[in-house]
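Q: Could you fold this chain for me?
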Amino acid sequence: MAQVDVAINGQNYRIACEDGQQDHLRQLAEKVDGRIGELVESMGQIGELRLLVMVSMLMADELLENAGTAGTGDDANGRDAAEAEMARGIDAVAQRIETIAAGIEQA
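A: Sure. Below is the predicted structure, expressed as structure tokens.
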């Protein structure tokens, strides 16, 4: 299992990941760090945990919005497909957050 060092909100973290996923994790960390930077700019340093929770919720909201527009129409099949895709997206994000949290705990 590989490890990658990332910086979020000025804090360094060593995250465990699958071999070959280091660059992907760095990109994810950059996105999270950028969103946290936006929040810090508008709200100040309100605590690392609160910032991470807020960013997670904002990103999940964006994912839901994007999945909601993925339907092919107003018919029931289109809605069902959009809801199924949204559920898969939420599950994927939740698994990634759990993996990242576990990696942080191990560091």
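A (continued): The chain has a mean pLDDT of 82.
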